[in-house]
Known about the structure:
Order of helices and strands: EEHHHEEEEHHHHHHHHHHHHHHH
Mean pLDDT: 74
Amino acid sequence: MRRAVSHPQGDTVTRPDRVGLDWSTFSLRETRSRVHGWMARGLATVVGIAVALGSLLAGGMLTLFPTQGVYTAEILSGRGLAGWWFFPEVLVVQPWGILQLPWLPTLAMILVALGAGWGSAASIGAIVRWLRRRTPGERGATVAGIAAGAGPGIASMATLGACCCTSCTSAAGLAVVAATSGTTVGTLLRVDWYLPVFQVAVVYLSLLAQERALRRTETLEPTSSPQGRWFLVAAALRVALLIAGMTWSLAMFVEWGTVDPATASSADWYHWIFEHQLLSMIAIAAALFPRELVSLFQNRPWRMPLWISRAALLLAGLTWGTWVPPALVKLGLGGFVNELLGAIGFPPSWGAVAPDVAVGPALVFHWAFQHLLLSGFSLTLALSPTIAARAVLNSTSAPSPSSGAQGDVVPSA
Length: 413
């Protein structure tokens, strides 16, 4: 169903009640259509090259230093070595350094770079098009007011656009996981095939969410909402949730490098399923698809699966964000307070758990984002979906007064 909406300037725009998922959405038709012309293509190329270069350097695939000896370029088959996802590998040794291109990480890097380039060009293009529509008298509005009036296209760029987040899911994301796990990016890339695949999946989800936001941008009228002053806070929250969820979900695969899933205990599986993936997936969903997540929790309050999900979120948030007794610590669990006590130097009888890394920026990030932010948001969503809805929906465009009758999700005041 579609309906006509009249703007204050007199223009009438046909507005769809819902922006659904179809093949054109999954194929990113709107995003690809925005990347036309030499400027957009040039921007996409520059961003893609920058992301690819950053991935090469951070991943240890490109090392720049003077070399001596025989300069070669060859393909290593890796016959007899473990790691089908790593070989064949292109190895280039030249006077300027060494370039290693294992096939699956390289393919993932190329796809991430393409997604970052397309997403950046489409996001910036949406901003430019919106700014050109503004009247001269409206250009004196505050930054938050402009962002709120721009609609979900601006929210997409700020919270899930490729220039902000798809690049962080590649090199920077792996660097954060490596730092908080006490290892290196190069070691992570050699762990298994699921790390490169996970990178591409998160990038595609970001572009898919941006695709839907770009479509809404053309149909939602600009509004001046009191929520606008909270836009930047809500947008920052969604960025933080995406980064925290993505890096913490990846960290599970790092643990699989030291604990064999086939022989893992029930406590390990609880930690992986609930404390890792459940908390991470909820955070990623809130960052990429806030309206859908809020609609799920608010429009079906009495469904049994939803109550089970909220109970699971509550349990995982408590065990991961607070403290567990020493008996559970012996099984392999431990929350934020347990790690804090371990860093301070308390004995195991207090439930203290030694952190994986020394006290520093990496551990502070782990505590602030992967412990407190993930568990705090999950606990809020489990106990009060309305409060969680306000937190993430303030970074989307405010619905028109007539939209509530069409099923839009509007948190109650």
